[in-house]
Design a protein that fits this description.
about 120 residues, mainly beta, about 55% strand
């Protein structure tokens, strides 16, 4: 059974930083692309960043230059370093993997950017 556990969210002031982590189990972590997806209040889920099995990252334009996605295959963990946070980054952040034909999601971690 795929399990994804996101952590690291919290309240931060504009311009601040947070580091999210996603601990994964139940599948061969290093063989799959992993994603961070966020959902702001009243909005649809948005793909923020993904990292392919070979380590190649991809970002939505709004976070390029501010967010960095990474993975540690030895620890079955994915990260999202978020710098220069703005109020528009406020959302619940989910980690995601498309495994054996279906999307699997963690429980989400809430990020609030506010002064």
């Amino acid at each position: 059974e795929v399990q994804l556990q996101a952590s690291g969210g919290g309240l931060v002031q504009p311009g601040g930083s947070l580091r999210l982590s996603c601990a994964a189990s139940g599948f061969t972590f290093g063989s799959y692309a992993m994603s961070w997806v966020r959902q702001a209040p009243g909005k649809q889920r948005e793909l923020v960043a993904r990292i392919f099995a070979n380590g190649t990252p991809d970002y939505v334009d709004s976070v390029k230059g501010r967010f960095t996605i990474s993975r540690n295959n030895a620890k079955n963990t994915m990260y999202l370093q978020m710098n220069g946070l703005v109020p528009e980054d406020t959302a619940v952040y989910y980690c995601n993997v498309f495994h054996r034909g279906r999307d699997s999601w963690g429980q989400g971690t809430k990020v609030t950017v506010s002064s």
